[in-house]
Every structure is written in structure tokens, then in C-alpha cells.
Design a protein that fits this description.
183 residues; 12% strand; binds adenosine-5'-diphosphate; binds shikimate-3-phosphate; Shikimate kinase; Shikimate_kinase_CS; kinase
């Protein structure tokens, strides 16, 4: 399926969801399928700050990170035809929603156990540097679920789905929302 058959009207697609949900990985393929460009907000933040996400959290704290995240999102929202793989916490800042809602927001909803398996492969995420990282992940998910639920499209991801299947499910979800808007 291409952008012409989807008639996305050039709006940006914002992928939201917990860390490890596959926003960056799926975003790449989704962008290709839509004929869009992919941007990863974490990558842009590291370029802007000229240091790693972990260093920003360690040296400047989470608040400073959130300000950079909002700045990057605000700059991206001036463009069109982007898939934006956001950071898991972007939904926590109410002011970010004014940018997100200019586009289509897609929630990649991955069950906790499955998220945990993926995250353990790369244990570097700063918010999980706690004594009980699984419990921290669970708490973050509980705190954020109602925020992710504000998305236009909710894609519940089965553990055995390939990136291709996830991207196709997102496109199917978007096509339903667009049809509803057109009627
Ligand atoms: N559909 C998938 N099937 C299996 N592994 C996946 C899938 N999507 C992402 N992953 C893996 O999960 C991890 C987290 O993915 P990533 O795209 O970095 O998540 P996010 O950007 O949401 O934090 C990576 O190791 C990635 O290879
Ligand atoms: O959930 C969060 O608050 C965060 C998620 C991370 O992005 P990913 O969702 O891409 O891992 C990154 O922005 C930072 O570590 C904070």
C-alpha cells in the first residue's frame, strides 16, 4: 500500500509507545512503505545536545532531557511527510500533544512481558537503572497507558509479528481512521 492509496494528506505520523515497543525499527519500514522520511527524536536530541541520552539524564537530569525532546518535536512538526519515532516519555508532557495532534498518532502497544524480553537485550535505558527494572517498567506502563490511549490508532502487537507485519497493521489502522474521517 502506498501513500496515494492511503491519502494521508501529507500529515506526519507519530509513533508512540513504551521503550522497546519497536518505534524506531518499525518506523524505518513504515516510512518506506508510505514514501515518507523517518526521524527518530532520540537521535535528533543526541545531535542537538552533542552527547548521548544517558549522559543527558546523568549530567542534566530528566527535566533537561524533556525540554530538548519538546524542542525537537516542535521543530519536526513544521515539516510534512515524516514518520517520527518518538521517545517513550513524549506523551508525559501536555505541551507535546499540541504538536502530536497536528499529525496522526499511532500507539505501538506491546505486552509488558514481551517488552521486557526485548529491553533486556539492551539494558542501557536511563529510566531503568533502578534496583528493580522490571517493576519500574511495569510502573511506567501503568502511569502512561492512559496517555498512549489518546492516540488516533491503537495497534496491539503480537509477540510473533515481524516488523513487516507490524508496519502493515499500522497502515491498516491508519486506513480505518482516515475512512472514518472522510465519511
Ligand atoms: N517486530 C519485532 N520483532 C522482533 N523484535 C523487534 C521488533 N521490533 C523491534 N524489535 C526489537 O526490539 C528492540 C527495541 O526496538 P526499538 O525499535 O529500538 O524500540 P523503541 O524505538 O520503541 O524503543 C530492538 O532490539 C529491536 O530489534
Ligand atoms: O520512556 C522514556 O521516558 C524514554 C524512552 C527512550 O526512548 P525509546 O522509547 O526510544 O527507548 C528515551 O527517550 C529516554 O530514555 C526516555
Amino acid at each position: 500500500m502506498t501513500s496515494t492509496s492511503l491519502n494521508l494528506k501529507n500529515v506526519n505520523v507519530y509513533l508512540i509507545g513504551m521503550m522497546g515497543a519497536g518505534k524506531s525499527t518499525t518506523g524505518q519500514l513504515l516510512a518506506q512503505k508510505l514514501g515518507y522520511q523517518l526521524f527518530d527524536s532520540d537521535t535528533l536530541i543526541t545531535q542537538l545536545a552533542d552527547t548521548s541520552i544517558n549522559q543527558i539524564f546523568a549530567e542534566q537530569g530528566e527535566d533537561a532531557f524533556r525540554k530538548l525532546e519538546t524542542q525537537v518535536l516542535s521543530e519536526l512538526s513544521a515539516y510534512t511527510r515524516l514518520v517520527v519515532a518518538t521517545g517513550g516519555g513524549i506523551v508525559t508532557q501536555p505541551s507535546n500533544w499540541s504538536h502530536l495532534q497536528q499529525g496522526l498518532v499511532v500507539w505501538l502497544d506491546v505486552p509488558l512481558e514481551h517488552l521486557w524480553k526485548r529491553i533486556q537485550v539492551d539494558a542501557s535505558r536511563p529510566l531503568l537503572q533502578t534496583e528493580r527494572p522490571y517493576e519500574t517498567l511495569e510502573q511506567l506502563m501503568q502511569q502512561r497507558r492512559h496517555l498512549y490511549a489518546q492516540a488516533d490508532v491503537h495497534t496491539v502487537i503480537k509477540p510473533d509479528w515481524s516488523t513487516e507485519q507490524v508496519a502493515d497493521q499500522i497502515i491498516e489502522g491508519i486506513s480505518k481512521v482516515i475512512k472514518v474521517e472522510d465519511t
